[in-house]
Amino acid sequence: MTTFDTLLAQQIGHEFAASHQYVAIAVWFDDHDLPQLAGYFYRQSVEERNHAMMLVQYRLDRGMGVVIPSVPAVRNEFADVREPIALALAQEKQVSEQIQALFAAARAENDGLGEQAMLWFLKEQVEEVASMQTLLTIAERTTNLFDIENFVAREAGSHGDDPSAPSAAGGAL
């Protein structure tokens, strides 16, 4: 098994873990009557699930075999509105490092198909980190939770389907 193959198998689990963490964050916001933030993180959860399924489809297409791993426990409690957003930003930065490692492994192993597949995910991570950093900045600048809710309603909505996105096994949700 190559390094790329190993990292790719692990990344499926990382993406599902991110999806679960985003559900926990969304539920926390829902429980604190912050519907815009809750909706944003519910959508983020679906997006991470779709990323996992894109990687599953890639492995299926390449005949690499697929094992769906279990996911670790998620964090469910937060002291304030900034904590879950900071956790999400840290998670996105970690995923960026993981995707960069996948790209580097594919390149080192002369796997042009693997390298090409990771390019979309690298582009996606730039957007994910930037949007989460902006959301955290907004949360840190205000003490009025309605300011954050209004920002999310106005600026952090769905950006639509990306026609260049890889196919997800079973179809994207």
TrEMBL record:
GO biological process: intracellular iron ion homeostasis; iron ion transport
Domain of life: Bacteria
Stored Pfam families: Ferritin
One GO MF term attached to the UniProt entry: ferric iron binding
Gene3D superfamilies (alphabetical): 1.20.1260.10
Keywords: Iron, Iron storage, Metal-binding, Oxidoreductase
Annotated residues for binding of Fe cation: 15, 48, 51, 92, 125
Keyword Oxidoreductase attached: yes
Keyword Iron: yes
Sequence intervals crossing the membrane: none
Cellular component terms (Gene Ontology): cytosol
InterPro entries: Ferritin, Ferritin-like, Ferritin-like_diiron, Ferritin-like_SF, Ferritin_DPS_dom, Ferritin_prok
Record-annotated Ferritin-like diiron domain positions: 1-143
PANTHER family: BACTERIAL NON-HEME FERRITIN, FERRITIN
The name this protein goes by in its record: Ferritin
Protein's organism: Quadrisphaera granulorum
